[in-house]
Model the fold of this input.
Amino acid sequence: MNRLNFKFHISNFNIARSNHIWSADSPVRANSCFRIWSRLPVFLIAVFSQITCALSATNEDFDDIPEMAPPRGEIPPSFWEQYGLLVTIAGGILLLTALFIIWRLTRPKPPVYVPIELQTRETLLHLRDRPESGALLSQISQTVRHYVAGAFALAPGELTTSEFCQAMKGNEKVGPALSSALGQFLRRCDEQKFSPAIKPPIGAAAQALTLVDLAEARREQLRAAELSEQVQKMSKSE
Done:
């Protein structure tokens, strides 16, 4: 803004003091008052014109528009504007991969099927080196019963030794020879368990392993016979 200097030249309006005594009826005082009142409008007009000029200059200064800064360059796109979609897709793929790995590691594993003959042999081999007692004989006989029932599809349920022997005799898959050998072994185990007299060990675990081998041979015969029947049926159909 321009600096304004206001100078009011009012030398024409200076009134010299008079050294004489003023009085109401003094002609000098009357003349001076007349001169003052006659020049007052001129003084007011001069002051008003100066104020008007100052205000006009001030308004012109306010109306001046300052120079604008030069335009900036184009704002480049941000990282998310350029790669937001790719980052989202990659994050989703990583999340799904992590969830799949966690599911594979935490899901329950399917039980491993172990053939019943392997389970039976492993149990009997573990019991063979233990001292023979009533509890051991019971465990061996139960192992043999469980094997025979599973291998030859006998009816489930808790049966006595006599009932179990009858079930084996009525099953064609077991066969009379194997049924007789198994029945004799089970009865001998019962006699050994419940006998009041102390008897020498009978080697129950070793005998049970031998019976398992006989039973597996019987199962192999049954599988061979079944395969032969299938081949005959196929040859007849052709």
